[in-house]
């Protein structure tokens, strides 16, 4: 037992010496490699750490000029060019990598992907499309297909966009909402060519793809009404209540016109007053007012407006209340009331805008796709005045915030 302990005393210094020799060899190798690195490399890293990308680029360019075979440096430098807005230099850098013959296939694919993003950033969509089509069968396939889908949407190539969403859905992604919109765009194009049958078939396809597609029923009702089939139009529009009642305001006016054209004045008054009991909407209020006015006259229309405004005060409601009051006034009394109504109406027109819930973009007309952020269904058919009223009601209920 004692002899074994003596042996350990002899082995420990030996292991220590071997470790010291190995450490010296590693340190020597690191120092040797560092001496081979140009000083500009360390300058560039320092500039990056201090968030000075312009100076970092200048330092790295010096290395690139010295060592043209450094792939990773060229690769990173091209991305840095794009990040700082120097897209033309990024394109030249990544294109030089793609054109090299000695690179591996993985390196070339990586450079090709970066070049595609350069072209996309530069707005050269045709060249971007060409590159990302080549990458569909590569490890970059998913990102390539997403970029291609964005290009097809921007160029309004709805058939190609539809095909691309089908491929993306095979990858386990959910694009049913977007795909239904693409099919609706194709339906509207067919309707513009007077190919109504094709348009109706497309709309049925959109609803099959996404049963919650409100837009399909909106367009179907418009086509049926244009053909004089008002019953079918109203039937299509009524389905919107079960999909998303917020969008009833989009079809309220044409639905009222179809009901009145079919001679269903009493049904129209009952329908829209019923809507108002369930949904707060200035467009529904406007149609309910006209429906009651057509069916029962000025006094019931006035009573309906007054009762509604007491619960949901709004300038739009006041505007309609003044309008119905003018109907019963003598010419001598109309002047002042007409002036007040004109001022109120002018102010409500400024509030009659739609706002994107994603980016805040505002427009006086409704868009299914926000023109600013390109998102679908982020602009709800609620005017600014309605949103403000709803917020005020929440504040009244919960107290000061």
Describe the structure.
- The protein is mainly α and 401 residues long.
- Among the domains are: 39-53 and 72-170, Serine Threonine Protein Phosphatase 5, Tetratricopeptide repeat, CATH 1.25.40.10; 256-349; 352-401, Rubrerythrin, domain 2 (Single Sheet), CATH 2.20.28.
- 76% of the residues lie in helices and 2% in strands.
- It is built from 21 helices and 3 strands.
- Strands 2-1-3 form a 3-stranded antiparallel beta sheet.
- A hairpin with a 5-residue loop joins β1 (354-356) and β2 (362-363).
- Mean pLDDT is 78; it is low at 20-36, 329-336 and 389-401.
Write the topology of this structure.
Elements: H1 2-36, H2 39-49, H3 53-66, H4 71-83, H5 87-98, H6 105-122, H7 125-134, H8 141-154, H9 158-170, H10 176-192, H11 196-209, H12 214-226, H13 230-238, H14 240-243, H15 248-261, H16 265-278, H17 282-296, H18 298-311, H19 315-328, H20 331-351, E1 354-356, E2 362-363, E3 379-383, H21 384-398
Antiparallel strand pairs: 1-2, 1-3
Helix pairs in contact: 2-3, 3-4, 4-5, 4-6, 5-6, 6-7, 7-8, 8-9, 9-10, 10-11, 10-12, 11-12, 12-13, 13-15, 15-16, 15-17, 16-17, 17-18, 18-19, 19-20
Keywords:
401 residues, mainly alpha, Serine Threonine Protein Phosphatase 5, Tetratricopeptide repeat, Rubrerythrin, domain 2, three-stranded antiparallel β-sheet, elongated, disordered C terminus
